[in-house]
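Support reply, case 0932

Customer input (verbatim):
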Amino acid sequence: MLAMRHATAAKRHEPRAIVDDRTFILATRDTGYRDVAAAVAELIDNSLQAEANDVQVFVIEGVDQTDGRTEELPGRSITMAVVDDGYGMGPETLRKALQFGGTNRFDDRTGFGRFGMGLPNSSVSQTRRLEVYSWQDGGTPFYSYLDVDEIASGRLRAIPAPERRQLPTWLSADIGANGTAVLWSRCDRLGRLRANTIAQRLQAPLGRMYRYAIWAGSRLRVNSSRVRPIDPLFLRGAAPLNEAMAYGSRLRYEFADPDTGRTSFVEIQFSELPVARWQEWSVSEKRRCGIVGGAGVSIVRAGREIDYGWHLMGGKRRENYDDWWRCEIHFSPALDELFGVTHSKQGISPKLELRTTLGPDLEAIARTLNSRARAAFEALKATTLTPATKLASATDQFLDHHGLRATDRIGGLKYHIDVSPLASPAFYAASIRAGVVTLTINQDHPFCKKFYEPACAPGRTRERFALECLLLAAARADVTTFGTRDEPAATRLRTSWADTLAALLDGL
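Our regenerated output:
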């Protein structure tokens, strides 16, 4: 009995680990990444900091690549991967990268990363198994992993020593001499979404977050489709979503670090959206483009957007007229504490010093822009255009943009082009009303993403005009069948055309 008491007392005084890894791994899964895009962004940050020029995100379903195998699985199992051509890692660096807090760049204020939490933290928030391959100089990759279930059961108590292992065959094509591949091979936080749906939903947020990196030449792809930059200020990008105007000059504020004495800058730019040109768009189109309900401030840290919302506007409350202007705030990681940036880089909580310095100026500008938007709408209300005249006016703007005249309109008809989702699988639809032929390009058909949107890029006016002429000719032919015995056949032909085109474009 005495021996048992001594043993119990000795056990009570045994040193305990600061972290109980078996419960920690389960608790940290709920760090709170707002969506899968925010979690994937942590991996892309690492790729860009490793000087990658090409970053690919894969979202696939129905297979398991664990341990390099490729096996069909029942149900809808999702696997995700981020593959880059950065400088890669050796075995010790790889092992440290899988540690929570393990990094050679802790508190580095020169790039995206800083805390060494991004890779493991974001990964376990989405998957029960994280696998990393990394290679240099064309050699066989080093491999290691984390497995939530093995850690929670006590079977895995340390980062496995990296070993040489070939990449899964589906990832081995088109890789550089150096690089890293991060696999989430047992994703269990994605609900019942299909892989294609997840891939599509990644495009817009990644395009916004990494717009500056893409503009600078980085190539970012999701399932082989290039991510296109999205400018929330509407100053850059594909026409007509680049027709906003910068409002005022770029503001610059200097802040000093009390500990080091070094100074850093906050830079702010406002833009004003073209009310007269865009207010005629449908509500669904304005919502799709991020105009309606899009009021706010883009917070950009080290060239990457980390938040978007109603920030630093003092006492100004958000109103509908605020949809018609935008603001962008840039700062460096040296000011993380001032902006209240957390280790997951998903938002800001500005400190009082920042609010009191920026708030009065930004509030004054916000109120001015709100008043200007209100005045623009009131001026438009003063006109008495009929709906048909308004549609013709929109058509006139389109034709004027291409240097056409009213007398150039074929058969006395006017033409208008819209881009929005269609209920049918067709890649376009045609309608005619009040002498105006309206061509609607199906936003959800691959043709829109792979042909029409690229043709709308700056500097491609001739290509866009040629493509639109082809489509308008097809629309003009379609409307001649309306109300005739040929209309059902034309509809079937258009649907067959769309299906065949989608199948052919699937490989591009």
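We compared this against your earlier run and they match. Two observations from our side: The longest strand covers residues 245-256. The radius of gyration is 27 Å. Please reopen the case if you see a mismatch on your end.
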